[in-house]
Amino acid sequence: MSTAPVKRRTDPERAQQRRNQVLEAAALCFARSGFHGASMAEISKQAGMSAGHIYNYFDSKDAIILAFVEREAEHVAGLLRDLDSRDDPLEAMLEDAPMHVAESLDPQPWHMPLEMYSEASRNPVIAAKLKEVDERAHNQLRELVRRGREQRQLPVDDTLLDGRLNTLVTFFHGLPVRGIQRPDMNREALVEGFRCAMRALLLS
Question: Which InterPro entries match (predicted)?
């Protein structure tokens, strides 16, 4: 009869909860100290677990950043599924502009665009992952916009669509930076400005 110790099964739900706990702690530490300034020891302390225990869930800070990238990708995928379920995806994008502006200016703990993009500028692994998830989302969004423009008998060649969508995404990516520079911006006026730009990009 074998006397080898029985390995305790990992509860997937419990493990995911612990991963989320680490990510929430990491978001606070990165916001406070920056990606390079925050240590794994600091993150583990913020998460309320031992320094060694945290490595059961993430083997490095790079792995934590990559997990944030995956979270962002899941969030975007959900938004695209919602758009796909609506009769007119272009009008839906205009209607949803206030929500997307608010998300960019008031990011949730899991949403750290500045930290992700800053680290990607130095780290080719993170840059490659961001490029991968962006390419996937861009292609899905392009097909949704194509459908909406075809309904209106507007041009739908890939070069035009890519140019319009890259411009639109650039606007939204710049919002967190502008929010730091001008935290007192009039949100209603900003949303109206976005809607004007979106109408020109999507509906002309």
Answer: BetI_C, Homeodomain-like_sf, HTH-type_TetR-like_transc_reg, HTH_TetR, Tet_transcr_reg_TetR-rel_C_sf
